[in-house]
Design goal:
Layout: E1 25-37, E2 41-48, E3 51-58, H1 63-71, E4 77-86, E5 99-110, H2 127-132, H3 134-137, H4 141-163, E6 167-168, E7 186-188, E8 196-198, H5 204-212, E9 217-225, E10 237-246, H6 250-269, E11 279-281, H7 282-289, E12 303-304, H8 306-309, H9 315-322, E13 326-332, H10 340-351, E14 359-362, E15 368-369, H11 377-387, E16 394-400, H12 402-419, E17 430-434, E18 439-442, E19 447-450, H13 465-468, E20 477-482, E21 485-492, H14 497-506, H15 511-524, E22 532-538, H16 539-547, H17 577-582
Parallel strand pairs: 3-5, 6-9, 11-17
Antiparallel strand pairs: 1-2, 1-4, 2-3, 4-5, 7-8, 9-10, 10-22, 12-13, 13-16, 14-15, 14-16, 17-20, 18-19, 20-21, 21-22
Helix pairs in contact: 4-6, 4-16, 10-12
Length: 609
């Protein structure tokens, strides 16, 4: 029968105790991590959120304590009283490895079944099983450390922005649907049958209204919702660090946020970040790295060699250039030792990014490779010089349309660096990417779409191009990238009503459509709008990167899997017909319950960012 804690008040957490408290009586509470019964001598490792402490029970302890200690099993919940003493043999791997508690009173507050996996760091259990029993997974010390770091990041964030003059203001969770971008999660209204709220994909419109309302500096750590296909860095519900500022330009927003990043890294990671942070324009990032989320921890930058291979008899090169494409390459340091099998594997890899093939040259004497015989000695030396290649390096070359070449080489440089262990560990490389295109053309819809959102301001010097050449207009937008992952993005917003109307027209909205979707904002904008801008960070991504986790599922207490289901609660699931009737809803067909579905195999985390 479970015992209670009456008269047993905890006096310390396990790792708060050291030799300065020898011979003192204390009360500890926690879970049995392991029990060792040596016959007349029982050792119990007690675990709480701070760490572990060894408990010792021998034949000098009360008989009732000896009897209970012999029956304690892993994950039983205990409260113990005892005297702190030195251990006869120290354990240097434990923070409390020089002391132990000799138990004078032991209470078993709750018994535990045998857990489905061992509660320890680096457990090898299938992730689906860990998510089904997430409350047990969260007991593991490495998971708790991630949650504690998440708490620290949010506290440091709130403290920094409070000192910087920001007010934390809440925005609604139930709002109206504005169907652009990802799908909304809809919530039916009981009071107005047939009408729906939407859960917010972001607080974008509300934070702009707060600027119009005169609050000047706003921040919020806020839950957001998007009904989209998932991967390692996405969840249907996620957390943003959301900011907005009035009477600012790009430089003002970047300056405040650089100081935030510097403060965060110093407080949380004890790492000094050099300011100002590096910057790349979108065009430069795409040219050098093939990505608007460049990983700058290693080289292997993309190099255009179209002019050096013009006239080459190698048909893929000639065909790409004839079709106004390009021939570009990366240089893999020391890669000449890669086998044909390794290179063929990389060739298959880039085909997923629409590249038709991969040419290669091993920088050896003599040169060898799939295109070595098609390039004369002079051209070969110029290519090697432009690549900055040395003896033993490997040149990987793609010829195709510019967009395909850049995307495939951008992905290839990261994949090759991973396979060759060329990415330095423990390095945090931040970079701003600026001057994104304002618009991108949607071939399927036959119109332009906003690359950021419809309220992003164009660069002032490009406004005149909105009518003559919309595709070349740059936005006053910026992303902060860390190690090849976008941490956050934002922009300066449009505050001029005429410019906003022109933007809506470019996006294919009639005036009636614009008012139907954004009427409350457009009406508000008739009452005096300050210039304003902001940024939103993915808190989950920040925690993922700072903890070295492979997936944001590892840093969210109760995450969903790729199918947007919760394996622990079996949500989403069926509801009673009475509940549906109250909402004026009926189902055309009955869905399976989540409990009927097999556990998905999610052991292979996606690393795509």
């Amino acid at each position: 029968m479970a015992e209670n804690m009456q008269g047993m008040k905890r006096t310390a957490y396990c790792t708060e105790i050291d030799q300065s408290r020898l011979d003192q009586e204390m009360v500890l509470c926690g879970w049995c991590h392991r029990q060792r019964d040596l016959g007349g001598l029982v050792f119990i490792t007690l675990r709480d959120r701070s760490g572990e402490m060894q408990l010792m029970v021998d034949d000098s302890c009360p008989e009732a304590v000896q009897e209970k200690a012999a029956k304690v099993r892993s994950e039983d919940v205990l409260a113990v009283r005892g005297i702190l003493q030195k251990r006869s043999s120290a354990n240097p791997s434990m923070k409390t490895g020089t002391v132990e508690l000799k138990v004078s009173e032991l209470r078993v507050l709750s018994r535990s079944k045998t857990p489905p996996f061992y509660i320890d760091e680096d457990v090898k259990a299938n992730e689906a099983l860990r998510l089904k029993y997430r409350y047990l997974d969260l007991r593991r010390p490495d998971m708790q450390n991630k949650m504690f770091l998440r708490h620290k990041i949010t506290k440091v964030t709130r403290d920094y922005f409070d000192q910087a003059g920001f007010y934390e203001l809440e925005t609604p969770m139930l709002t109206r649907s504005t169907p652009e971008g990802a799908r909304d999660y809809l919530v039916p209204s009981r009071v107005f049958p047939g009408r729906f709220f939407a859960l917010p994909q972001s607080p974008q419109l509300f934070k702009q209204l707060l600027m119009l309302a005169g609050y000047d500096r706003y921040m919020q750590i806020v839950r957001c919702f998007r009904d989209e296909d998932l991967r390692a860095d996405r969840q249907p519900e996620f957390t943003q660090i959301d900011l907005e500022m009035s009477f600012v330009g790009v430089e003002d927003v970047l300056a405040v946020n650089e100081r935030y990043i510097s403060h965060l890294m110093q407080e949380v990671m004890q790492i000094q970040v050099q300011l100002p942070l590096p910057r790349l324009t979108y065009a430069e990032a795409m040219r050098r790295f093939g990505s608007d989320k460049p990983d700058t921890r290693f080289g292997m930058e993309i190099v255009d060699i179209s002019d050096l291979v013009a006239g080459s008899p190698f048909r893929p090169f000639a065909g790409a250039l004839e079709n106004k494409g390009s021939v570009q390459m990366i240089c893999v340091p020391g890669g000449a030792d890669m086998s044909r099998r390794d290179i063929d594997s990389l060739t298959e890899y880039i085909k997923t990014y629409r590249a038709k093939g991969l040419a290669w040259i091993a920088v050896e004497n003599p040169l060898r490779g799939s295109v070595a015989k098609f390039i004369d000695e002079t051209a070969a030396q110029r290519i090697i010089s432009r690549a900055g290649a040395k003896q033993g390096d490997l040149l990987l070359i793609v010829a195709d349309a510019d967009t395909i070449v850049r995307e495939s080489l951008g992905q290839l440089r990261c994949e090759a660096a991973r396979r060759r262990n060329l990415i330095p560990e423990g390095l945090f490389n931040f970079v701003w990417v600026t001057e994104f295109p304002l618009l991108e053309y949607d071939e399927e819809a036959g119109r332009y779409a906003a690359m950021h959102h419809p309220f992003t301001s164009p660069m002032e010097e490009d406004v005149a191009l909105l009518e003559s050449d919309p595709g070349s207009v740059r936005a006053r937008a910026y992303d902060l990238v860390l190690n090849g992952t976008e941490l956050g993005g934002g922009s300066i917003r449009i505050h001029d009503q005429d410019l906003q109307k022109k933007m809506f027209a470019l996006l294919g909205f009639t005036e009636e459509q614009a008012w139907a979707r954004f009427g409350f904002l457009l009406e508000a904008f008739q009452y005096g709008v300050p210039p304003h801008g902001g940024i939103a960070y993915g808190l989950d991504r920040i925690v993922m990167l700072l903890t070295g986790s492979d997936s944001i599922r590892d840093v969210i207490a109760f995450p969903k899997v790729q199918t947007s289901t919760c394996l622990m609660t079996q949500a989403p699931n069926l509801v009673d017909e009475k509940q549906l009737a109250e909402l004026g809803l009926s189902l055309t067909e009955l869905a399976d319950t989540v409990s009927d579905l097999p556990l998905p195999d999610i052991s292979d985390n996606e690393n795509e960012a």
